[in-house]
Amino acid sequence: MTEQHLVAIVVMDGLVPFDLGTPTQIFGTARDETGHRKYKVLVCSPDARPVEASAGFKVMPDHGLELLRAADTVVVAGIHSGDPVERGTVDPRIKDALQEAHKAGKRVMSICTGAFVLAAAGLLDERPATTHWWWAERFREFFPQVKLDADVLFVDDGDVLTSAGVGAGIDLCLHVVRTDFGSEVANRAARRSVVPPWRDGGQAQYIERPLPRPADATLAATRSWAAERLDAPLSLHDLAAHANMSVRTFTRRFREETGVSPARWLLQRRVDHARALLESTDLPVEVVARRSGLGTAAGLRQHLQNTIGVAPSAYRRTFRVVPGVSGG
What we know:
The protein contains 15 helices and 10 strands. By secondary structure, it is α/β, with parallel strands linked by helices. Helix 10 crosses helix 11.
């Protein structure tokens, strides 16, 4: 990776403005403790022509698609109209440029419906991916060969990454910054953007579901109670008893309020806590596993591997927060 990582954002007609603003903001504010910018962010389109945004204005890129040859990372912004989302096809110039970039070893990303563009370019065949839940049915119709998971915020499949809509693009960009330069740089970028520094890609999208009645939205206290006892062997019966509900009613209402099962929510909180301890303390891995409720070092290792693909020791080396270093 060069000293300043070059991010090329591909835009096209029907552009979702937020999906252009997200990578320019997150990557553009990623700096080290000295204030040095870690990324250079540029925008391109076929022949550098103006692009019609979905909000009624034009975007004037400074670069053509040849920019992708120099880029380290290529980001395809989402669209609300055009061939990719209406017919499952893409401008051959964009298709060729993306395929060439991928073959050259560039990291390729999409935000929201940008996944339609990657799929139309053949970059998602037989690979896991996600997009905004609202577009999932159409995506599956156009691209049945893609292993779409419309329940998650983002998917990191190594050299190709996809995210769900709007805010999930922020999560993906911060995940990439954290992977490239560590948690301190990512946290600093998040603070400058006034957004949460980390949400797991496996967290559920906020999919439209029937809302619980106000009288039914009673589980926040139980979630807080459980979050303070992650090191305890909490069972579904324990959680339901705290909420003074039957297990069946508790499970149904919990999923209505959070979008996930109690077991998945509890595991996510435990992995989150383990990651925080690995980043901020020198506690032995066995102690981190015990305090986070993951049992043994082997259990912690398995869950971290399943979640982010690294062992606890490797995670600590990469994302260790240095005390006293801050940014703004």
